[in-house]
Amino acid sequence: MVLDVVVIGASVAGLTAARRLATEGFSVAVLDPNQAHATAAIGHGVAACAHASTVANMAGAYGDEAAREHVRRNLAGLEEIRGVAAAGALELTEVELHDHSLGVALDRELNRVLKLIGDGGAEISLLPAEASTRAAAGLRSPALLVDPADYAAVLDEQAEAAGAKILHDVTVTRIKRLDGATQVAFRRNLAWSRDLEVLTAHAVVDTLAVSPWGSVAGVGQPQYVPTLRLRGVEVPGEVTLLAGPPTWLIRPIGEEVLLLGPKCARVQVAEAAAALMNWAATEFGARDVMPGQLIIDPSDHGRPVVGASAIPGGFYTRGNGRGELMNGTASGCYLAALLLGVDAARSVSLPWASKVRAGVGRLLRRR
């Protein structure tokens, strides 16, 4: 049997795409090298319409329309997160995002980014210095908070319930392009397992960069982000983005505070972690702390690298869009839209025979 789609990686992007495609009646399998929920349970669990610094970087690198498209994708991702949470009875917290990621920006720069984000359809306003705990002007917009592990578990469960076949603890060993389809060979992650299993699909979505097109989409070496969880300090009621270093994000988690340091190379992470610790002691008076770190993919001017490859049947997402809640959800929605042919301006989608069969399957389910 030829499946419609094989997804490599049970990341937020991979599971989001799988859930949407399976819900539409398409046959989907997900292959993941880790234990259940581990690949998607990364990041800080914050989603918003955009980050001011990302929008400014994207507009400078690719033009204003690319920045507006980034906002539109994130808004679609926010609706997807709300839908997943509602269907899974998962608690979502909505707070304000106070965005100072442009640093001490001039009014004209703040207003320019404000207009770009607003033109993308987002609810956003200027945050005057007198209303900010940082005593500096910035941008204010809604943000969603969720526990990454809880969200990963619910997303995995919903993708499976929709009909996606999810295999964890497997390693993809070979990908071979056939006439009109692609073979994906994989092996179980067991010390005694030597037998190869093979799936064939019309399209392959790669969120782990193990395929020819996913490898091409790689944009550099992994980056490290030092983290600190603070206990016994005053917990803010909002999420704050800073220009950094030493701190990039301040996020409330129940009775604790999560701090994220800057993205850096492996050899720099110890120095960045020490600077983050000193900042926490100065700003919060924090003594009871739990250090950690995230390992993420770099992105291109803040933009996850997502799309269809020159190799027929190949789709990919790289950059921090493959796993993290905000960009991962936006990337997964976009990839699903490409495969479903929602955007008529793009020529990539699943074969008509698959669409007819999926449509018949949806009708039968409704009876």
Automatic annotation (TrEMBL):
| InterPro entries for the chain | FAD-dep_OxRdtase, FAD/NAD-bd_sf
What protein am I looking at?
FAD-binding oxidoreductase
Which stretches are transmembrane? Answer: none
One Pfam family linked to the record: DAO
Q: Where is the FAD dependent oxidoreductase domain?
A: 4-338
